Every structure is written in structure tokens, then in C-alpha cells.
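[job 4471] stage=fold_predict status=RUNNING
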Amino acid sequence: MGFDACGISVAVQLEDDARRLESWLSKGFHGKMQYMENHFDLRTDPRKLVPGAKSVITLLLNYFPEEKQAASAPKIAKYAWGTDYHYVIREKLNELLAFIKANIGAVEGRGFVDSAPVLERSWAVRSGLGWVGKNGNVLTRNAGSFFFLATLISDLELVADAPFSTDHCGTCTRCIDACPTEAIVSPGLVNGSKCISYLTIELKDALMPSGFEGKMDGWMFGCDVCQDVCPWNRFSKPNHEPFFTPIPEILNLSLAEWETLGEEAFRKIFKNSPLKRSKWQGIQRNIGAIKPPEGLEG
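[job 4471] inference complete, writing C-alpha cells
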């Protein structure tokens, strides 16, 4: 199916993760992402999300690009350079489930990719794929962290992989030190409401909150700083997924060209792109937040 790694764990209630999630929510670190408060029981127990579930299959799909953005282009997180990963991975999960049914028989299951109450990172660690780094991302020793997490919850009873039990961040604090908005509160704990990805994508307010002036570091959509500085990402290799081929405008448009890009053109160019989540109005707001003051351009 083109996935880069696969791990299996037993479908059980995630008691420790439930406590951590409850604490994270109580601190308000989810900002205005109210949906994070919904379906708490489903998030922490896959058997309630998929009745009869016995196994959780976690898959990784690399998205690290070979190309680079032009120096004049406003920064866009690498995951958003090509076709929206939801479309790509959902199709692969459907293919995988069809393959399982064709080869094993009557199997029930549901695939999830960042669109349902599933604690993907917890399952990735439980299935032996990697550990949660100080930046809150799942890290692997052979490929870093530039990959998507997908989950297939099934009533198929499978032999589970051993959980990943070690941490390989050591004394390194590069991600914590480099975060432009100081969103990484402590190792592995991220205040989502201060994260540039949240501010430029999830936050739907017409104006950027005060206190972030001059801290956006040129990021127009998402942020990769904590991944770019991570030593483990020196092992990242370009992906082989045709759908993740970068949209030329993402690589090449300057800030001034983005500013003059009309709404109709935006909708046409980015109809299958993650950028449509912010909508044209959101992109224009983000441009305003990273645009240098008058007279300081260039």
C-alpha cells in the first residue's frame, strides 16, 4: 500500500494516556480546539470507538520532500506541500482493509487518519514504532519524524508488537530552545494554544492574538521548526508518494504574490491541498501577521 512502517497493539483502554489528556485539557492547552474535549471515552478506548475491536494497527507514511521552498516564499509546513494527506491515506486504508478481507475473510474494521478521536501517538509507541520526543512528535531512529500516522482498528486478533520502551532524545533540547513562541512547556508537553501550527491553521479568529507580534518566524501555514532542528531528522529521506509532489505555487510564490492572489485563484489552485483548511481569509490574516512593517520589506 506504500506505507513505510507498521506496528500492532492490543485494543485496550489507555488509562495513563487518559490521565495525561485530561491534564492537558484542564490546562487549556487545546486553545479554541473544542473538539479535543469531545468523545473523551472514545479517544481513550478503541473498543468503544469500534465495537468488538481486538487490534490497533498503526502505520507510518513518509512525507519528507526532496524539493525546497524558494527563499522568497513564505514558509509552509512540509506536510502541506502536496495533496491533502486525508484523501491519500484514507484510500490506502480502504485498500488495506479490502486486502485483509480478501485474504483472511469476514473482518470488521475502521481506518482513521487525524479525523476521529484516536490517540495516534500513543498507539505508535505501544506498537513499537517509536517514542514521543520532547517536541511532542513521534520519533523513529531510522527516519526521524516527517511522517503521517494512520490507524486501523479491527476485530481481527493479531500478535502484538513489543512497545517502544526507550527514549532517545537524551539531553538534547534543540526543539525546546528553537520554538519561536515557546510553546514546548516541558519535554513532551506542548501548549497547543501557543503553537504556530495552531495559530495559522486551527485558530479561526479574524485577528491573530496579541503577544505573538514578531514571533511567527515567517510561517504562513503550519510550522516545522521543532522538526527541522531535531538531530534525528538527519535520517529523513525523500518520500516516494506521487500525491505528495509539491504544488509549484507553494514552492515559488513570494509573499507579495500571495498577498495579491485572489480568492477564486486560491480555491482553484489549492482545492485538494491542506491549505484550504485555513481558507483564503485565514491565509490573508496569516500574511498580515508575518509581513514586515512598512519600509522594512526585503
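[job 4471] summary: The CA atoms of residues 259 and 288 lie 9 Å apart.
[job 4471] exit 0
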